[in-house]
Amino acid sequence: MTAIDPRDPAGAIARAAKTYSNWGRWGEDDRIGTLNFLDEDKRREGAGLVRRGVSFSLSQSFDMDGPQKGWRRRTNPVHTMLDTGTDAALGHQGFPHGIGGADDVIAMPLQCSTQWDGLGHIFDRGKAWNGRPAEKVVTSDGDLVTGIEHMAPQVAGRGVLLDVGRVVGTDGELPDGFAVTEAHLTATADAHGVRVGRGDIVVVRTGQLARVRRDGWGEYAGGPAPGLSFTTAGWLHGSEIAAIATDTWGFEVRPNEFENAFQPLHQVAIPNIGLLIGEMWDLEALAEDCAADGVYEFWLTAAPLRITGAVGSPVNPIAIK
């Protein structure tokens, strides 16, 4: 993509949407977008990457100590016990022969911690993924067409870490507002000796999560952040990756690169490219291991919860090397 005019977000979005559209690519009934690139051969390739058997959870915690501050009614998870050891010990549960137990419940927005953005999460000028009218796709009953449940069997294959924070940044971190370009992504892949292509699940580490863990959450949920430049839309489309995730709240650089704009790369990537996007992933332990052994590819499984009609889902991604 050529240089962007920061005064014209609408024009840039419209041009990118037209140039990089995947509408109709997998038929008018498609519900999974770029996950179509992640086929049986790609899963076999990913499974063959397991050598040491060491595994990493790429999930942040789901608890009250998270980063959410109430934007668009997003809160941190509320975990409540329904039955406890105290109830059992005091004989309050009414079970026979000394058996007792504990039960609990959690209440949370589906995108309050490590998560996937489903294809019904973002619209472009009234259109959802594959050109469908947004009002006919997502209603008060949920996402009637591209609900996250359709992706539940799909997200497992070859994972690739691009540790842009280590390769491009200072002391392993990119500063807030740093726009990661295609050149940065390519240079990082070259530095790691890894290729990125069709059907891959790419995880991009900026180092922002490491910084906020050290300094406090601050504006992590919605504030300034390093992230992908709007100009990477062509790379996201042309590389034919299945999905991409970052360690930041919003995937793309914040503040955005246009005046009076909000998440313009989302507007191209989700409803037009059909790309599955993950946010707030914890890549720290995996990145340390990759730096130690020089291997930046691995088996990755990251299935969303099968929540009917949801436009996003919590996830506990597991990388195995």
TrEMBL record:
Pfam families associated with the record: Cyclase (PF04199)
Record-level GO BP terms: L-tryptophan catabolic process to kynurenine
Taxonomic superkingdom: Bacteria
GO molecular function, one term: arylformamidase activity
Protein name: Cyclase family protein
High-level lineage: Bacteria, Bacillati, Actinomycetota, Actinomycetes, Kitasatosporales
